[in-house]
Amino acid sequence: MAVSISRKLLHSSGSLSALSCCESSRIIHQSIRDSNAFYSNVSGDNLSTLESSSFCKGGLSFLAFRRLSTSILTPVSGNSAFPSELLSKKTVLPSERAPGHYEDLVMPVTNFHNEDKGFMVLAGDVFDVPIRKDIVHRVVRWQLAKRQQGTHSTKTISEVSGTGRKPWPQKGTGRARHGTLRGPQFRHGATMHGPKPRSHAIKLQKKVRRLGLKIALSARIAEGKLLVFEDLEVPTHKTKNIVNYVSQMENTKKLLLVNGGPITEKLKLATQNLHYVNILPSIGLNVYSILLHDTLVMSRDAVNRIVERMHTPINR
């Protein structure tokens, strides 16, 4: 009984699949007849014979479908025009250059008056290194810990000013027993386990410090926030000149100027009243200062000195 029922189910499913195959063949046949690009190469009688013989048969249906679906439409693949609905309406933009390939970069050189001063090649092993936030975090922690003064101090019981006499007898007064009034439980008494002057500095390898500075410079280059000037000379010591120069820069909220040698007196006087403009010599350039400012301006001499500093072998 069970065998006969299963055979009936198989027969019914086979008839349904055959019916669906034939129905799909009619739909595909109609869509192919509507397309002139495909129909120009194959005659109608042969195509209908191929469809009816292949799509209704289970074994050849995949081959026939593949034979019809692997045709590639190109603008010159026939006499008919290329179908407009297959063309993309989206503009194709070239992919931007990804940083971190150690490639030398060519930067335009200008000045405060936005004059063309030529070009400069930046070393790829200094200004185009992969961005690593963990290295930057380690270097910033090292900088902030090292610059802590560590002069905090509290007085112990031997350093507090006061008498060493026992305040009252051990027994007979009804009060708690005490041997000194300089203990931590009394007012103006000692501080137990308080801070003492010490160094908060932590150790960090020199190669990691250098790598952190390279990453910070590479990040500013990738953001387009690093400018190279021929020099940082200003005509006068007036602050309004620097204000006008900074206002001409786009999306600049805080500016860091890096000079190769010592800071000139005119530039120092022109920027000392501006809280959003700071100056550093190239020897003092560091990761934390770069991160505090959104725009970095370096002179040509400063770039050369930084590259020379990064290429100097580390003394072990």
UniProtKB/TrEMBL annotation:
UniProt-listed GO biological process terms: translation
GO annotations of cellular component type: ribonucleoprotein complex; ribosome
Stretch list, region Disordered: 151-200
InterPro entries noted in UniProt: Ribosomal_uL4, Ribosomal_uL4-like, Ribosomal_uL4_dom_sf
Pfam family of the protein (one): Ribosomal_L4
Coiled coil: none
Polar residues: bias regions: 151-161
Family annotation (Gene3D superfamilies): 3.40.1370.10
The entry's keywords: Ribonucleoprotein, Ribosomal protein
Secretion signal, residue range per the UniProt entry: none
GO molecular function, one term: structural constituent of ribosome
Domain of life from the UniProt record: Eukaryota
Protein family membership: Belongs to the universal ribosomal protein uL4 family.
NCBIfam families: rplD_bact
The protein, known as: Large ribosomal subunit protein uL4m
Annotated source species: Tetracentron sinense
